Amino acid sequence: MTTIYLKRHKEESLLRFHPWVFSGAIGHVQGKPEEGDLVVVRSAEGETLGIGHYQEGSIAVRILDFFTDSLPSDFWQERIRAAYLMRVALGLLTNDNNTYRLVHGEGDFLPGLIIDVYDDTAVLQAHSAGMHIARKEIADAVVSTVPQVKNVYYKSEGTLAMNRRFGDIENCYLIGAESTCLAKENGLVFSIDWLRGQKTGFFVDQRENRRLVERYSKHRRVLNMFCYTGGFSVYALRGGAERVCSVDSSQKAIDLVKLNVERNFPACTNHQAVCADAFDYLSKVQQDGNQSYDLVILDPPAFAKHRGAVRNALQGYKRLNAKAFEQIAPGGILFTFSCSQAVDKEMFRLAVFSAAAMSGRRVRILHQLTQPQDHPINIYHPEGEYLKGLVLYVE
């Protein structure tokens, strides 16, 4: 097995259980590792620091286990079992809820791996070459551990770049086949398109924040921007919203939100779905002056995929929130989010603060939101706190 030796004094982060080894920390390599190989990491003095997956790029090794040079034969089974038992202990598996994140990368000590469960189907997504290689073992561990899961769909075509070792990555069922079951979240049902939809098919991380929208929706006119599958919209309707408008630039998303509204509220008359660019729609609403919303949800896709894009992302968040502040009715509530890991809480708050100042409105923070308990943050890996949200009262 390949051994990677670090430069002197570069082992401190691993001694603090941070799971990443950066390429700049490597002194020399004993062997010729390929992407996805298991490698042993040692200090410059030869102390064993851990074993993990090797990958070309800034993050050279993602540690799977510390202070050992081998993985036990039941490694995948035990890690998946630990993740599942935590979700059971948290009370996430109920008659009203069969949708949850089973594995959240570093937060479940499996860096580079995401698994979401929708009733009897688990959607597995690899963010590292090592997890791609181990996908079948992982799928077997999921089915043998989680009683409800009968199918495992592998969806990594968009998360793993093609390389010389693997060629094209294809999405496919590793176990089972397409299911007709519906995902249930807090008593609401959703059609999930894990074959063609974004991420694993649904944004499970907004579950608790959707419930908060439901709480504030009664008698309000709700605008759900970047609606995707319409999760926030369906919760707002159950919360007693006067009317709800769902906006997304994708017609496929609009078709899906219509389907999900119909599934939960047949013959609903107070929901409208619009296929439009978010900035264009907000500008049009402001110009027309004949529509007003007093609860607005801004949940855009990640504006910054890497640190080099942070500056432009912050400008995007400022511009988007400024549009919302200009449009929202007095006494309105704004739910605004960032899922860009490269943008931290303070950066995001400053962008929203700047937008509020530009509008001249009086604004108060009601809630500071984050990801739910099935998206845990490894205490040794603060970078795992990616979802940031603010609930604002706008006078």
Labels describing this entry:
395 residues; alpha/beta; Archaeosine Trna-guanine Transglycosylase, Chain: A, domain 4; Transcription Regulator spoIIAA; 3 domains; 7-stranded mixed beta sheet; 6-stranded mixed beta sheet; 20 strands; 28% helix
Task: Give an account of the 3D structure.
The chain folds into 3 domains: 3-66, PUA domain (Archaeosine Trna-guanine Transglycosylase, Chain: A, domain 4), CATH 2.30.130; 75-185, 2-Layer Sandwich (Transcription Regulator spoIIAA); 203-394, Rossmann fold. 28% of the residues lie in helices and 27% in strands. It has helices at 12-15, 75-89, 129-133, 135-145, 207-216, 231-238, 251-264, 278-288, 310-327, 345-359; strands spanning 3-6, 20-22, 26-30, 38-42, 48-54, 59-66, 99-104, 113-118, 121-126, 151-154, 172-175, 183-185, 188-190, 221-225, 243-248, 271-275, 295-298, 332-338, 363-369, 388-394. Strand 7 and strand 8 form a beta hairpin. The mean pLDDT is 93.
Question: In terms of topology, how is this protein built?
Answer:
Layout: E1 3-6, H1 12-15, E2 20-22, E3 26-30, E4 38-42, E5 48-54, E6 59-66, H2 75-89, E7 99-104, E8 113-118, E9 121-126, H3 129-133, H4 135-145, E10 151-154, E11 172-175, E12 183-185, E13 188-190, H5 207-216, E14 221-225, H6 231-238, E15 243-248, H7 251-264, E16 271-275, H8 278-288, E17 295-298, H9 310-327, E18 332-338, H10 345-359, E19 363-369, E20 388-394
Helix pairs in contact: 2-4, 5-6, 8-9, 9-10
